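Before relying on records like the one below, remember that each one covers exactly one chain. Contacts with other chains, cofactors or solvent are not represented anywhere in the record.
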Amino acid sequence: MSVKEVLNITVASVVTHASSKIKVPKVAPPPESCGDIQCLTPSQLLCIGAGIIFIIIHFYNLIQRNFPESFPQLSRLYTKLPYIPYISPEPAPNIISAEETQDKNTSINLQTFFNDLTFTLCIFSAVFLYTFYCDFAPNFVFDRTKKFQDLTQFIILLIAITIAFFSCGLTPTPTPPNPSQPPKGLQPPILPRHQTDEWRGWMQVAFVLYHYFSVAEMYTIIRLLIASYIFLTGYGNLTYFLNTSDFSPIRFIKMLFRLNFMVTIMCLLLNNEYMLYYICPLHTWWFLVVFATMRIGYQYNKQNWFMIMKFAFLFLFCFLLWDLPLLHRYINTDPNETTTTTTTTTTIETAGAVKQLPDLFDIIFSPFTFILQWSQMSPPLYEWKFRSGLDHYIALYGMIFAYSYSKLEKWLIVDLEQNPSLSANTKTQIKVGIFTVAAGILSVWWYFIGSLNKFQYNQYHPYTSFIPVTCYIVMRNIFESTRWRSVKYMGWFGRISLEMYLLQFHIWLALDAKRILWFRPFNLLGFGPESQVGIYSNWVFNSAIYSYLSNLVFEGTTKLNDWLFPNKGVKLIDMGRRCALVFMIGSIGWILALFASFVIAGYSK
């Protein structure tokens, strides 16, 4: 018997014996959609009506600005509007100087603010109404077709995208003013922002192509990509809180708004459940965990002993939340026992005795069942427990990596690259040796763990996903030239990855990612879903619209986030007025849409 078989039998027997006692969740059939306007919910009417009102207001304002003589009263009103403080979004570090930033923090006329706001809301409305139209396919323009389950096409397309993006150029390498004496700050850091953006971009492109071609053979890779997302959530947020100590309510609200604004609109507009877009609750949950961890006793966050205690308590919390019930079932059951799972307790029926262990997971998340439930599964929290449990340690590992960042960077840059006692040849040999070790560890992991089938791999994933993530970071950052450079367009995809993830379900795919959205005019040209020309033409057409609209929504969300919740310079009462303005316009749209639905319903009778 080989070593691989022994490892599989030893570890899998523990998890399989315990998980076999759990009832298989019941899967409910998805609800049938209704295309009649009378079937629309009040939330859908609210979103549609508000979107129409936003578009009308923007075009009315656009006409007034270009033809002021047609609206003399409105023009006189605009000239009397006062100036208000407006803070432009803060730039990324090392991109715009402090003097340039200070010049942008100026007061603007309320008319300018109103023009920008109506334009942004108009863009939102147009994108969401287009999403609503696509989601109600088949219609006049779009249809639904089965997925093209072809691993070969997936690989060919991914290689073609890689070659195309590499040919478009890489991020330039900064050059020091004096090459003979490069400044200390010019050394490329480990995991710089442009590199993490590129990492997210590669993950997002592979993720959406995996859904498009439905290649089950890539499940392990996609599972690792999702773990990388969660790793970056823990890494990025802890880095921010550790460097800035910014635990203000504004920062907290801005992050929650960024993660949940668009998905909330999608749920209301399309009458979907929050767990359909499970990446958003995952990111939200781990942001809350990182925020709470760093906020408690934040004045001692620079003390190593205090942070070690925090990490230890967080590890214990994750163990109690996800691993303790599994361990308890394994210890207290044998093949002759039966186990039933209830909402708040794990019940073990033995010979004449019943033991109950409170399930901490259900105790914590049961109050939020109305948000985290998945109606197609029973019990309702099963999907959330499964999704969150697959990556319940990788965020903690990202936090530990972020806290150890300075020591890692010092060793690599100061002790190795800037060490005058080591020759260039010796430094290269050390780096090649580290790269080789990382590649070897990754190969061993793939041989024993990564090559398993889907169900076997899920048992190992929460406890081993940090290995390939660490190997990738080492191999990507060990050489100075690769730390500096990244693929520009992949970084662009990485910045809009959240919007791409959400919109893929409705304007790139169809039926909640179970089908492909097909552009019907291709049928008139003789390019049907059965032809290769039609398949690639439809992919290119929908991909162009999908990427462009994702970028529009990203820019709109960023602007709206900065308008409603500016970091500084705007009083709380002004923020309330801005939120009230958006809510008022939305309420008017909902009332008009409700009235229109009654009129149409009465006319149809």
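The longest strand covers residues 345-349.
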